[in-house]
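Notes to self after the call with IL:
- keep both proteins in one doc
- input above output, always
- annotate only the second one for now

Protein 1:
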Amino acid sequence: MKTTFLNRISDGVFTKLKPCVMALGFFDGIHLGHRQLIENAKRISLQRGLELAVLTFFPHPKEVLNQMKFPYLISIERKIEIFEMLGVEQLYVIRFDEKFASLEPEVFVQQYLISLQVKEVVAGFDFTYGSKGLGNMKVTWRRSISCKNGAQSRIIRRENKFYSY
């Protein structure tokens, strides 16, 4: 597994990446629900002949936005080991800071998903992104991506069912 730590993405930096299916989330503890989400992304990546990628964040957003110590269930190092055991081929760890937190949802999609050659994204029912968490899979992803490159998004509900957009 290749692990890439990102502070910012510059245009053109990732032009040689393989198209991928990406699982998005913080994944603290990588509990059973997280593992099922990643397994669903893996199944899709195999069906579509695409690389399996995960995009996660560090530190936890609550540490940056709420100025509070977050009680991590596992270390970032352990998280990386588990992702590798789950068959993730490419891991992106984005440094979560105030500048990143202030990105508009459409900018997040353009700079961190389209630039990373994401063709399909899988995330949990409660995953939000962008400034004030205004981006969600149903609205912004479809508006920002699907029209441009045929990308799809899938939300995993609590009962482990897919909803595609």
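Protein 2 (the one to annotate):
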Amino acid sequence: MEKIDARSLKDEALHERRRQVIRFYKRGMELAQLAQVTELSETAVKKIIRLYETGGVSGLKPGRRGRRVGDCIPSAHVGQNRVTA
């Protein structure tokens, strides 16, 4: 069974997937079985459980993705690391 890459999911689908993991977790399902049923890696399942335990249901909401504003390389510094002979 192929694992699902959560990065390709829309926010709504990702949130529902996380809620699904928690529902199975509360029923006492083991991590390995939970990962297999939800088609996620065990690492992803552990992360979702940790998010839930630290932030509750609101902790399961997806955050912002990608680079933050201002994290890019300033255009003045692009190309300065070139080696010249």
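Annotation: The chain has a mean pLDDT of 78. Residues 11-26 form the longest helix (16 residues).
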